[in-house]
Amino acid sequence: MEGNCVKYSRYLPPFVLRQALILILAALILGLAANQLNPRGIAISAATPGAGVWDESETGAAPRLISLTQLEQLLQRRTAVLIDARSREEYLAGHLPGALHIPFEGWYEKMEQVRALPQDKWLVLYCSGGTCDLGDLLAGELISAGFRKVAVYRGGIGEYQRTGTLERGEEARHE
Amino acid sequence: MNSIKLPRIETLLRLGLGALFIFASFSKIADPAGFAASISNYRMLPELLVALMAAVLPWLELLCGLALLLNRWTPGASLLIVLMNAVFIVAIASAMARGLDISCGCFSTSGAGSRAGLARLLEDLLFLAAAGWLYLRAAIGLYATPHRPGR
After folding, report:
1. Do A78 and A141 sit in the same domain of this protein?
2. Residue span of the structural domain in which B103 resides
3. B89-118: average pLDDT
4. CB-CB: which of A35, A128, A159 is closest to B103?
5. I want to staple A139 with a disulfide (CB 3.0 to 4.6 A). Which of A63, A169, B9, B59 is the partner?
6. B-chain residues within 8 Å CB-CB of A151?
7. A18 with A96, same domain?
8. Which of B36, B41, B37, B40 is nearest to B100 (CA)?
9. Predicted local confidence at residue A32, as pLDDT
10. Residues of B whose CB is below 8 A from A37
11. Does residue A154 share a domain with residue A73?
12. Is the pLDDT of residue B86 over 90?
């Protein structure tokens, strides 16, 4: 028994374990504190943005970020309106199934369409993914316009088309 | 002929790994929600753990990176880097086995960042080997010689 302890402590010395534990504790404290102070921080709960569960009761003045998993759930539940924030040419070349087209460039020219968007459904913005921020920018405009259920799918076209099929052509009409 | 000096290789590995982990932590610390989305895409963890990991893991990467760079608590930091890389390898291999074509979430929180695939798996294996070597030298090597913890 004692021999085993000596053998283990040879490969995992107690002072190393102590250092590792202190580093973990420091990361835990710093991580939770920084998350609280970060305006883009997340709620540490089972309904975290980006997590698998989509808590539709959580709305706010900042857009929710959603993952591919959540996007798939939303598409199944039909509780969201997808909005493509890219240019018309890009939209026509391929967009997420059922997505409306409201380009960030000149979105105010589509004010009638914006006013007709439902307040009781999640408006999910996206663009090409990667460094594209048109979805985030349009999300900010929609929140300024009074919408509270606004989300951004940052994976965008780049991520989605690796698992799903894009729709081509003219704009879909939302019910 | 012994032209390679082991301590020099160790120093290079330590500084390289340290800088790498510090760099990897930045975008995740700035965008915890984006990192949470990346973790969630692996579909391995319950929601609460996804959130906790997204908030804490980047800081653990940062602290371990700083520890290696400053050569303070190298044994503990290299042990944690070995463990983190082991977790990353399991996650990427599992995603590949399930046919998930997702963003790795390794150095960027962008959804269209580098894919969780073979290249990343091999990269993480290299990092694991480097951290493992550092651990063997710093923790066990030190322990074999007269050593007083805390110094």
Report:
1. yes
2. 6-142
3. 78
4. A159
5. A63
6. none
7. no
8. B41
9. 93
10. none
11. yes
12. yes
pLDDT of res. B57:
96
Other C-beta atoms closer than 10 Å to the C-beta of A128 total: 18
The DSSP bridge pattern shows strands A150-153 and A122-126 to be: parallel
Residue A50 lies in a domain: no
* Chain B interface disruption, residue of A7, A10, A15, A71, most B CBs within 10 A: A15
Binning pLDDT at 50, 70 and 90, where does residue B109 land? low
Per-residue model confidence as pLDDT tens digits over B46-81:
777 888 899 999 999 999 999 999 999 999 999 999
Q: Does B113 touch chain A (CB under 8 A)?
A: yes
Q: Is residue B1 part of a domain?
A: no
Provide the token pair at A30. Answer: 């710093």
B 120-139 near A (Cβ less than 8 A): 139
Q: List the one residue out of A172, A131, A121 whose CA is nearest residue A154.
A: A131
Choose among B36, B79, B143: nearest Cβ to A20. B79
Centre a 10 Å sphere on the Cβ of residue A121 and count the other Cβ atoms it contains: 16
pLDDT by residue for chain A (175 residues), tens only, comes to 555 555 667 788 899 999 999 999 999 999 999 988 877 677 776 544 444 444 444 555 567 778 888 887 777 777 889 999 999 999 999 999 889 999 988 888 888 889 899 988 889 999 988 767 788 888 878 877 888 788 888 888 988 888 788 888 876 554 4
For residue A166, tell me if it sits in a domain.
no
**Inter-chain touch A43–B34, beta carbons under 8 Å:** no
Number of domains composing chain B: 1
Go through A35-70 and write b for each residue having 16 or more CB atoms within 10 A of its CB, e for each that does not: beeeeebbbbeebbbbbbbbebeeeeebbbbbbbbb
CB contact under 8 A, A50 and B54: yes
Q: Do A25 and A69 sit in the same domain of this protein?
A: no
Residues of B in contact with A41 (CB under 8 A): 32-33, 55
With CB atoms and an 8 Å threshold, state whether A48 touches B36: yes
Radius of gyration of chain A (CA): 22
How many beta-carbon pairs under 8 angstroms link A with B?
A: 177
Residues A9 and A81 in one domain: no
Q: Is residue B84 part of a domain?
A: yes
> How many structural domains is chain A composed of?
2
Q: Are residues A70 and A147 in the same domain?
A: yes
Give the residue numbers spanning the domain of A31. 2-37
Establish if A42 belongs to a structural domain. Answer: no
A142 and A69 share one domain: yes
